[in-house]
Design brief:
Elements (H helix, E strand, L loop, with lengths): L1 H8 L3 H14 L7 H4 L5 H24 L11 H17 L7 H24 L4 E4 L8 H4 L4 E4 L12 E3 L8 H12 L4 E3 H9 L19 H37 L4 E7 L5 E7 L20 H9 L7 H5 L4 E3 L6 H10 L12 E3 L1 H6 L5 H17 L2 H17 L5
Parallel strand pairs: 1-2, 1-3, 3-4, 7-8
Antiparallel strand pairs: 5-6
Length: about 425
């Protein structure tokens, strides 16, 4: 029991951070040449420890935030997050006057990666396993709403086994006095009680809005300061990728021209930020003068080169122009056709709220669902968009960025 408690304590970030800083900043010095250690903790060695500590802290913080999002296999993001912060921390540090110990950083990096994988194993071992639900109101079919969780149905106020949380419709008139007393008692025992809508949102990554009172309006308004920072990041990323992007542009243009000698680029009016119309740029992936309707599986309008461009998302790269113009972002809800958006306004409650942020080249809906065509798929896509708008943050954008790389390599959701 004592060992299990020690392992369980590693779930908490302060404990993880304390152990991580010890392992990844101080322990590596034990493996260095003794002549290096004889120099003592001078300015250079202090600088090395500081940089290693920053990398350890930022990586741990980011991974802990990523684990909070639904459907995430956090072990898949350990190496990408490590590389991301390694580049952001060490590249600027390389420009300073201080010297580096290559051996120290290699040992520190190995220690950090090993520690992160151990933490991930422990976190999965002590992840929430079972949720009990009281079948009243809109919580009557929780297993159908969220099939990914392990559910225990409560027919009586006798819990009978250990659970990690209780879910119900706290607004239901069917929640009797006995159930309310049961909920109060379980809360005093330290068992968290969740409203069905909150648990559905946290486990599915979707926000459903049928009535205005179901969501606080403020939670759907993104932070203006972050949106400014987000644009700066977009600009810097596009600038850093510019040499590679120009090469891809050149080869793509040649391939399109060789196939049918048609136009390289294709422009289309779509709905942008705050409902304004924007002209979106793309590489042409369909036959010229093809009818503008929604894409379907095995669409015969798509050219041979176009199939490759769509599968790898290369056809979206010209939208970098829209990003630089401030009309779009790298990450955000998909910009819809104007006619399609007008129809959805009549079918989906509060559809226009998705225009409260700039549309993106990739987004939460794209990496979770792919390309949506039917009415039901589109409604799910809107729920993913609402989740993104409600939880928009640097961590969520970073997560979508990593998952976009995966979808690009696998062709997930392309048509």
């Amino acid at each position: 029991m004592f060992n299990k408690r020690i392992l369980a304590s590693l779930k908490f970030l302060p404990v993880q951070l304390l152990i991580g800083l010890l392992l990844c900043t101080w322990i590596p010095y034990l493996f260095l040449d003794w002549s290096y250690l004889d120099q003592g903790f001078n300015t250079t060695s202090t600088f090395n420890i500081l940089i290693s500590g920053m990398l350890t802290s930022l990586t741990l913080f980011t991974l802990n935030l990523i684990r909070q999002f639904p459907g995430i296999n956090s072990s898949s993001y350990i190496l990408p997050v490590f590389i991301f912060w390694f580049a952001l921390v060490f590249v600027p540090a390389e420009l300073t006057k201080y010297s580096f110990s290559l051996i120290y950083y290699c040992i520190s990096g190995i220690c950090l990666l090993s520690y992160l994988f151990i933490i991930d194993i422990i976190n999965r071992r002590y992840t929430v396993q079972t949720l009990a639900y009281i079948p009243v109101g809109r919580a009557i079919n929780m297993p159908e709403q969220v099939p990914s969780a392990d559910w225990l149905k409560l027919d009586t106020t006798n819990l009978g086994q250990h659970v990690n949380g209780i879910v119900t419709d706290l607004h239901s008139y069917d929640l009797t006095d006995d159930w309310q007393e049961f909920i109060a008692h379980q809360t005093l025992q330290g068992i968290p009680v969740y409203h069905h809508r909150h648990i559905r949102e946290s486990l599915t990554g979707r926000v459903k809005i049928n009535h205005m009172y179901e969501n606080e309006l403020g939670s759907l308004l993104p932070c203006e300061n972050y949106m400014m920072v987000k644009y700066c990041f977009d600009f810097l990323i596009i600038l850093a990728l510019l040499p590679m992007t120009l090469i891809i542009f050149l080869f793509t243009a040649i391939a399109i021209k060789l196939e049918d000698n048609g136009k390289v680029f294709y422009t289309q009016l779509r709905v942008g930020h705050r409902g304004k119309s924007i002209k979106v740029y793309k590489f042409r992936s369909m036959r010229e003068k093809a009818k503008e309707v929604l894409t379907v599986d095995n669409d015969d309008r798509i050219t041979k080169v176009g199939h490759f461009l769509r599968r790898t998302r290369i056809d979206e790269l010209p939208q970098f122009i829209n990003v630089l113009k401030g009309e779009m972002s790298l990450i955000g809800p998909r910009a819809e056709f104007i006619d399609f958006a007008l129809k959805l306004e009549q079918q989906v409650p509060f559809f226009n709220y998705r225009h409260i942020v700039k549309p993106g080249i990739s987004g939460w809906a794209q990496v979770n669902q792919g390309y949506a065509t039917g009415a039901e798929e589109t409604k799910l896509k809107i729920e993913y968009d609402f989740y993104y708008i409600k939880h928009i943050s640097f961590t969520l954008d970073l997560l979508i960025f990593f998952r976009t790389i995966h979808t690009t390599l696998t062709g997930f959701g392309s048509r």
